[in-house]
């Protein structure tokens, strides 16, 4: 049995100790925001924080994560109010969205270490691949998130999203086929 703290909660995994953390999070903990991309550590879609450091969860086993503090995209900010999430939306740095959770985790770890990263520091600190190619907007978003985190800027264009359950499940009236109008 492997134990660790995931998103602030103690968790035990009754899985093979060689199981990649990615699969323990996705399959056993149902934290599906951490994405499977390549399984080889090349793309960064599975990035999580391990003791505050951005690591590819496909490359670390649950045995290696024993006793450590893991933060997934779900634990970073439940209401998507983290400065990186807000800036990604405001700068339109999200296309298909598949790589977004991993990028947000890498960027938030970078900003925790470097409050005002340069473009070069961002390019070196964000190893993630984005098939949609949002890199110029990504650099702007991370720099903007740094300004928001330092409280030198606010983002009013990207409020934390919320969906009213009534709006998500509205009943749609039935539409009948037009009557035959032949003469």
TrEMBL record:
Q: One matching Pfam family, short form?
A: Fer2
Keyword Oxidoreductase annotated: yes
Entry-linked PROSITE patterns: 2FE2S_FER_1, 2FE2S_FER_2
Would the keyword Transit peptide be found if you checked this record's keyword annotation? no
Q: Which residues form the 2Fe-2S ferredoxin-type domain?
A: 1-76
GO MF terms listed in the record are: 2 iron, 2 sulfur cluster binding; metal ion binding; oxidoreductase activity
Keyword terms: 2Fe-2S, Iron, Iron-sulfur, Metal-binding, Oxidoreductase
The ranges of region (Disordered) come to 159-183
Question: Mind telling me which PANTHER family this protein's record contains?
Answer: BLR6218 PROTEIN (PTHR44379:SF2), OXIDOREDUCTASE WITH IRON-SULFUR SUBUNIT (PTHR44379)
Q: What is this protein called?
A: (2Fe-2S)-binding protein
What's the source species for this entry? Erythrobacter aureus
Highest classification ranks of the organism: Bacteria, Pseudomonadati, Pseudomonadota, Alphaproteobacteria, Sphingomonadales
């Amino acid at each position: 049995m492997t134990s660790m703290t995931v998103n602030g909660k103690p968790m035990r995994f009754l899985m093979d100790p060689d199981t990649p953390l990615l699969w323990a999070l996705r399959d056993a903990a149902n934290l599906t925001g951490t994405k499977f991309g390549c399984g080889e550590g090349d793309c960064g879609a599975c990035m999580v924080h391990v003791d505050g450091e951005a690591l590819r969860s496909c490359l670390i086993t649950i045995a290696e994560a024993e006793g450590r503090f893991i933060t997934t995209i779900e634990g970073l900010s439940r209401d998507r109010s983290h400065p990186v999430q807000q800036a990604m939306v405001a700068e339109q740095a999200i296309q298909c969205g598949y790589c977004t959770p991993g990028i947000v985790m890498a960027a938030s770890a970078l900003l925790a270490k470097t409050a005002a990263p340069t473009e070069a520091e961002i390019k070196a600190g964000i190893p993630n691949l984005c098939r949609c190619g949002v890199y110029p907007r990504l650099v702007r978003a991370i720099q903007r998130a740094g300004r928001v985190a330092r409280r030198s800027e606010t983002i009013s264009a990207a409020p934390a999203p919320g969906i009213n359950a009534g709006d998500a499940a509205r009943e749609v009236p039935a539409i009948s086929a037009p009557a035959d109008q032949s003469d």
